[in-house]
Amino acid sequence: MSVQISYSYQRKQVIQALRYHFIARSEIKILMILVNVFALFAAAMFFLKKVSPAAFLLSSLLWFSLMVTFWFILPFTIYSRTRTFKDHFDLHFEEGGMLLQHEKGRKSWAYDQFSYVVETPEFFHLYIDPRSFFLIPKDAFADSDQTHTVRLLLREKIGKR
What we know:
Elements (H helix, E strand, L loop, with lengths): L2 E6 L2 H14 L1 H22 L5 H29 L6 E6 L3 E6 L2 E6 L5 E4 L3 E7 L2 E6 L6 H14 L4
Antiparallel strand pairs: 1-2, 2-3, 3-4, 5-6, 6-7
Helix pairs in contact: 1-3, 2-3
């Protein structure tokens, strides 16, 4: 079994993939839940006239800042600082691993170097560790059969989270 794809990243898709990565992290989920509970509590206390409008405004500002940071600032910052997202790649899937080729060189990975794979609508996210991952765009595959073949290969060799 051998599948080869060529691709360049699309900015809009990468930004969405980075958003998914940040929102899916357990510590960020917990932080967002706590801030949302705090905001709801502050709204209830404001409604019951137990806190001043300034306290309610401050809690709302905290909530808004957190959402803007995780939805806009972090993804756009990572995208703009990472040169990889602006290059073109050829990727070969083999039974024993993957070979990534680029105009500046090549890198091969055995599947056991990845800890898990997450599939989103636009990408396969291959995680090396909880903070390091490799994105494979699904639109680089020739058809849905090729995508399905690679999906099965990645699930078999790496495993889902």
